[in-house]
Amino acid sequence: MAKLILVVDDEPSIVTLLAFNLKKAGYETITAGKGTEVLPLVKEKHPDLIILDLMLPEMDGMDVCKQLRQEFIYIPIIMLTARDDELDKVLGLELGADDYMTKPFSPREVVARVKAIFRRADLGRQPQGEVLTAGDLKVYPNKFEAQFKDEELLLTPKEFELLVYMLKHKGIVLTREQLLNAVWNYDFAGDTRIVDVHVSHLREKIEKVTRKPLYIKTVRGLGYKFEEPKV
To answer: Per-residue pLDDT tens for 1-23?
Structure first.
């Protein structure tokens, strides 16, 4: 069955362009022109991915993204905006977007990013395979599952990917550039603030005191190191 993508934009030309190219790539699409239409559509149609414009009538993309994550809906989101503003980019990622593209964009690049997200998600449907552990944390990379203190850990796709990469390199100092290249392997060259945002999100979910982390340590002037917590 073809993947279903929800395209949300109030510019008909953008919607038509994206829908055409996504269908050409083998995906099904549904569309919305207002932010208030997104949550009802998501609950009714259960899309596999959302391409979400930032500037929308009635409810903007930031609020839509926030609303979805507050409802514990972790469908991957690619955010679109006409603003080439780092603050918007970081804020969108802080609210739970998985990727970010600035208009004007290449439809081919959008399709490539969609394929990359689905490729990683498909890995999660493989047999259980390896289990990564550290302290009270258990992560199953091939199942896209994580547990902390035996309770399910709710992570966005990018948070999960970052956590897996850091766990696989436990005890090793990883620079922000290394993490950026490993997890965001396109178009974010030099934008290491994205790494900091996602590390902050992970800490909020697995650290008892985020300012005194037991798992993800900051190595001043270099980057981060994932450690086995000391009992």
So the answer is: 889 999 999 999 999 999 999 99
Do 118 and 136 fall into the same domain?
Answer: no
Peptide bond into 104 cis (omega under 30): yes
What residues make up the domain containing 143?
132-226
Helix, strand, coil distribution of the chain in percent, nearest 5 = 40, 20, 35
Total domains, the chain: 2
pTM above 0.70, yes or no: no
pLDDT value at position 85? 61
Consecutive H or E run containing 28: strand 28-32
Is 19 inside a domain boundary? yes
**What's the average model confidence in pLDDT over 200-227?**
93
CB atoms within 10 A of CB 116: 13
Give the H/E segment covering residue 90.
Answer: helix 86-94
